[in-house]
Amino acid sequence: MAVNRAGIVDRNFVEKVEKLRFGASLSSPPPAPRADRENPVRPGTSLSARQALALLESQLESRHLDLVARALKARDQCFYTIGSSGHEGNAAVAASARPDDPAFLHYRSGAFFNARARQVPGSTPIMDVLLGLTASKEEPIAGGRHKVFGSLPLQIPPQTSTIASHLPKALGMAVAIERAKKLGLAPAEDDRIVLCTFGDASLNHSTAQGALNTARWFAHQDRPCPVLFVCEDNGIGISVPTPNAWVQTTWGSASNLGYVYGDGLDLADAWDAAQAAVLWTRQYRRPCLLHLRTVRLMGHAGSDVELTYRSPEEIAAMEAMDPLLTSAALLIENGWMLPEEVNSLYEEIRQRVTALGEEAIRRPRLSTAAEVIAPLAPLHPDAIAAECARPPDADRRKALHGSLPEEDRPRHLAVQINRALTDLLLKYPESLIFGEDTAKKGGVYHVTADLQKKFGAERVFDTLLDEQTILGLAIGAAQAGQLPLPEIQYLAYFHNACDQIRGEACSLQYFSNDQFRNPMVVRVQGLAYQKGFGGHFHNDNSVAALRDIPGLILASPGRPDDAVRMLRTCVAAAKVDGRVSMIIEPIALYMTRDLYADGDGEWAANYPAPEEYIPLGKGRLYGDGTDLTLISWANGLWMSLRAARWLEKEHGIRCRVLDLRWLNPLPTQDIVDAVQATGRVLVVDECRRTGGMSEAVYTALVDAGVKAEMARVAGEDVYIPLGAAANLVLVQEEDVRAAALRLMKGEK
After folding, report:
1. CA 147 to CA 105: how far, in whole Å?
2. For the segment 317-374, what is each residue's pLDDT rounded down to a tens digit?
3. What is the CATH number of domain 5-25+32-365?
4. Cis, peptide link before residue 665, omega less than 30° from 0
5. Domain extent listing, the chain
C-alpha cells in the first residue's frame, strides 16, 4: 500500500511544533510572547520578528496549497501536483526584492509568489493558485490553460519552463532595463533588477549554462546586467541526485558573477543572504547567483513514487529538515510565538485554503475550443493597416538615406531589406537590431550594413554566438517594452534554439490570457541554392519545425519589394497585436537582379512608398493563364516564373504563378482561386518533401473541396551536401518543366 507522504509531512509539523517551548523547561509555563516585533527575530540577523511572522504565513499558505492540491487530485478535481514543499525559504527572496522587480519563477516558487503578493494590496494569491490548480477559466493569469505562477500586478510573467528555458529571457529583460535608460525610454533612476528562480537540476541544462555565460560575458565588458539568478538547490532532479557541493564548487568562484549562499531551511539565514544578493545586484548592476539550500518534500509530484529511488530512511531524513519546522522554531524559541499559536495559525490557514479549494472547483472551466484558443494570436487587420500607413519622419528619412529610396532605380533584395530596416529603426525609436555579426560587419551578407553607424551601438549591436541567447535577449527586451528585430544567421542555426520561440515567445500571450506580450520580428537568413558555398548548415531547407508553432507568423518573400512590405506588416503586427513573426529571407536571392536573361533586371524592384504593406495571408499572382497553375515561394518562385515563360514559349502552355509569400497564415483563398481558374496545379516546393509547404497547399485544396489535377516537385528528404551534389537533391528548373509537361499530359 502506498504511503501518504503528504499526510506524514502534515502530521509531522503539528506534532513537532507542539513539543517546542521557549524560555522555560517543558514543565514550566512559557512566558508571554514578546511584543517588540521590530527587533531582530534572533541575534545577528537583519530579519525583524514582524517580517519573520509575515514570511511564516506565506510559507504556511504555500504548504497548504500543496496539501489541498493533493487532496483535490484524489477527487479528480485538481490537475497539477508539483508542489513547493521544502522550498518555502524562497519567500525571503521575494520579500527582499521590490514588487516592481520582474520575477521569472519556476514551479516550486509558491512561497515567493505569496510573499510577493503581500507587497501588493488587493492581491489574492491563494485563490489565484487554486483556480490554476483546478483549471478554472476564472484564474487571472492563464485562464485555466495551465497552472503557472504569474501576475501582471505582481510583475511575474508566467513561465511554463521546467528546464530553465526562462533564464535567457530573464537575462534579456535585465539587459533591456539598462538599455532603455540609455535610449531615453526609461528614467535614468530606474534601478529595478530581474529575479529568476530555478532548480539545481535545471542549472545543468545547456540553456541555463548559456544564460549564465552570457551574463558573465556582459559583466566582463562592464555592461550592466542586473539579474539575480536564484538556484533553489534541493539536491535532486526528479530521481537523479545532484553531486554533493556541485553548485557551489562550479559557480561559487566563477568570474564576473556574484555569488551568495543562503540556507533556505533557515528563514533568517535565507533572508540575510537574499538581502545581500538583492542589494549587490541592484547597486552594482551586475549578475549574481543566489544559491539557496532547499529540500524537496512529498516527491517530485503527486504521481511520483519516491520509494523507487529513495529509501524510507532517506525520505524521513528529508522530512526532518522541513523549513517550516525551522521557521516555527525560530519564532517560538526566540519568544515571539507560542507553539499553540503556530499550530492555531497553521490550522486557520488550512481551513481557509481548503474552503477556497472547494470554491475553486465550482468555478467554470474552459468549455469550447474558441475559448481555449482566444488569447493565442490576436489579429486586428485594420489596426495593422493603420499602423503601416503611419510614415516615419520625412525629413529624417531623407537625411538618413541621403536621398529617398523610392526615388532610386530598382535594386536587389539585400539592399531593399536594408532600406526597410533603416525606415523601421527611424519609425520606432524602441526598435533594436542584433545578432551575430550584425553591427560593424553588417551581417554575413551585409543586409544590416551601416545601420550601427546611423543609429548607434545601443540600437544595433553584436551578440555572442548563441542563438538561445539572441532569442532570449529578444523576448526579454520585448517584455520590457522594446521592439526587437533579431537576426539568426542561418536557418539551421535557428533549430539550435527553437524552443525559445516555440515554448517561450509564442506561448506567452496564450498562457497569460494576452496580459503579457513579447512582440518581435525574427529575421532568418535561410533556404538553399547558394553557389560556391553551402552544405547543410548554410543551405538548410527545413521549415517543418516552424510550421506547427502556434501563433507564429511565418513569412518568406522572394521579391525585393515584397520583402519591404512584408517586413512592415510584421512589425506592425508586433506593435498592434504583440505578435511574434519570423521572416525567412532566401540567401540565394539576396544579390539576384535578373530573372529571364542576364542583364534583364527583372528581379530587381523599386522601393515601395513608406505606407505600402501586404496584408497577412495575401499571396501574389503572376499572369492569367488558364492551362496550369504553379504555386511556389522564395527560390521556387524564381524558378516557377522562368519555367512558366519556357512552357508558354516552347509548348504554348499558358500558366499563372502564385507566390505564397506567407507560409503562416497561408493564403488559402488565393490558392483555391488560382487552382480553380486552371483545374491543374503544380506545387514547386524547394523544401523537403516531408514537412515542406507542398503538404500544406495540398491539404488546403482538399479541405476546400477543390477538384483539380495535382502534382508537386519538392526537395528530397535528406541533408544538403556540398557543391554540385546539392543540385541532385534540390528542385531544379528542369524538374519544374518536366513535371509541368507530365501533368499537362495526364501522367503521374
Report:
1. 12
2. 999 999 999 999 999 999 999 999 999 999 999 999 999 999 999 999 999 999 999 9
3. 3.40.50.970
4. yes
5. 5-25+32-365, 388-589, 620-744
pLDDT in the model for residue 28? 66
Cell numbers found for residue 17: 511544533
DSSP string covering 579-622, please? -EEEEEEEGGGTT---SSSTT---S-BPPPPTT----TT--EEE
Residue 665: helix, strand or coil by DSSP? coil
**Contact predicate 104/111, CB 8 Å:** no
Count Cα atoms within 13 angstroms, Cβ side, for 398.
Answer: 3
Q: What is the mean pLDDT of the chain?
A: 95
Q: Which residue is associated with the grid cell 543572504?
A: 273
Q: 580 forms bridges with which residues in the sheet? A: 520
Sign of CA dihedral 224, 230, 235, 236: negative
Question: What is the per-residue pLDDT across 187-219, written as a single tens digit (0 to 9) for each?
Answer: 999 999 999 999 999 999 999 999 999 999 999
The percentage of residues in the chain with a pLDDT greater than 90, rounded to a whole number, is 91
DSSP, collapsed to helix, strand or coil, labels residue 104 as strand
CATH topology of domain 388-589: Rossmann fold (3.40.50)
Nearest alpha carbon to residue 196 among 224, 164, 233 = 164
Under the banding of pLDDT at 50, 70 and 90, the label for residue 538 is confident
Asked whether 447 and 418 are in contact (CB, 8 A), the reply is yes
Write the DSSP assignment of 284-347 as a string of letters: H---EEEEEE----S-SSTT--GGGTS-HHHHHHHHTT-HHHHHHHHHHHTTS--HHHHHHHHH
Q: Tell me the pLDDT tens digit for each residue of 389-406.
A: 999 999 999 999 988 999
Helices 339-360 and 125-133, axial angle in degrees (round to 10)? 50
Q: How far is CA 126 from the centre of its chain?
A: 26
- The whole-number average pLDDT for the span 228-237 is 96
**Dihedral sign, CA of 522, 528, 529, 530?**
positive
> In the predicted model, what is the mean pLDDT of residues 692-715?
96
CATH architecture of 620-744: 3-Layer(aba) Sandwich (3.40)
- CA 301, 305, 308, 313 torsion-angle sign: positive
Q: Is the pLDDT of residue 430 over 50?
A: yes
Looking at residue 321, its amino acid is M
Look up the pTM and report it.
0.95
pLDDT for residue 1: 45
Fold match between 5-25+32-365 and 620-744? yes
CB-hemisphere CA count at 13 Å for 531? 4
pLDDT number for residue 531? 80
Q: Is the dihedral of CA 433, 434, 436, 438 positive or negative?
A: positive
Cα angle vertex 410, ends 408, 411, to 5°?
100
pLDDT recorded at residue 31 = 77
